[in-house]
């Protein structure tokens, strides 16, 4: 590799950005309902509480007492109605049952049509992550072009380009593997 620091490509930064795209994908996958209860299903839902948008897990304790049931034990009795309303309007397709300060969320079985829709949504999330990875790759290749203008040798350009491509290939393979696992989980009856 070149000894001039201005000719070096920051692979750590590229790797960190690719890892960020993968972490974002995993977070999006958590929001997909698979027919089994998971506390993470409620992460995207916020409630207008005390004058600000607050995640449900900051208003009560979320538990998974059974594979098809979530419960939320709301700490402040005055928030129960607001949490229930946020759950109904969330688009999760869950019908909350209020019992005092406890809200029960029975998770209905997914039908075949809904499972197929969810696998398509998962595929869209994965494609967005692939695009993000490719954008990071393009930024890395742009760094090589700038270094070429600053005097980087042809051999060094090839080495850097190969390393960036390896990072890209590994990240895309990770996305494909995560998508395959998520789709299998969604289709599991």
Automatic annotation (TrEMBL):
Domain of life: Bacteria
Key word Cytoplasm present: yes
GO-annotated molecular function: ribosomal large subunit binding
Keyword Iron-sulfur in annotation: no
Gene3D superfamilies associated with the record: 3.30.1360.40, Ribosome-recycling factor
Keywords: Cytoplasm, Protein biosynthesis
GO biological process: cytoplasmic translational termination
SUPFAM superfamilies, per database record: Ribosome recycling factor, RRF
Subcellular location: Cytoplasm
Annotated InterPro entries: Ribosome_recyc_fac, Ribosome_recyc_fac_dom, RRF_sf
Segments forming domain Ribosome recycling factor: 25-187
Cellular component, GO annotation: cytosol
PANTHER family the UniProt entry points to: MITOCHONDRIAL RIBOSOME RECYCLING FACTOR PSEUDO 1 (PTHR20982:SF3), RIBOSOME RECYCLING FACTOR (PTHR20982)
Function: Responsible for the release of ribosomes from messenger RNA at the termination of protein biosynthesis. May increase the efficiency of translation by recycling ribosomes from one round of translation to another.
Entry similarity comment: Belongs to the RRF family.
Cited HAMAP family: RRF
Name assigned to this protein: Ribosome-recycling factor
Gene it is expressed from: frr
């Amino acid at each position: 590799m070149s000894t001039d620091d201005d000719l070096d490509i920051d692979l750590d930064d590229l790797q960190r950005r690719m890892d960020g795209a993968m972490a974002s994908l995993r977070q999006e996958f958590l929001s997909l309902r698979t027919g089994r209860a998971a506390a993470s299903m409620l992460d995207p839902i916020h409630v207008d509480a005390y004058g600000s948008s607050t995640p449900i897990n900051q208003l009560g304790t979320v538990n998974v007492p059974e594979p098809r049931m979530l419960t939320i034990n709301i700490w402040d009795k005055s928030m129960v109605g607001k949490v229930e309303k946020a759950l109904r309007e969330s688009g999760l397709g869950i019908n909350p049952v209020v019992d005092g300060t406890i809200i029960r969320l029975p998770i209905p079985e997914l039908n075949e049509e809904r499972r197929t829709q969810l696998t398509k949504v998962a595929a869209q999330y994965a494609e967005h992550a692939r695009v993000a990875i490719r954008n990071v790759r393009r930024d890395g290749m742009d760094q090589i072009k700038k270094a070429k203008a600053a005097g980087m040798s042809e051999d060094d350009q090839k080495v850097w380009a190969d390393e960036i491509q390896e990072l890209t290939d590994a990240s895309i393979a990770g996305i494909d593997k995560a998508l395959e696992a998520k789709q299998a989980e969604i289709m599991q009856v």
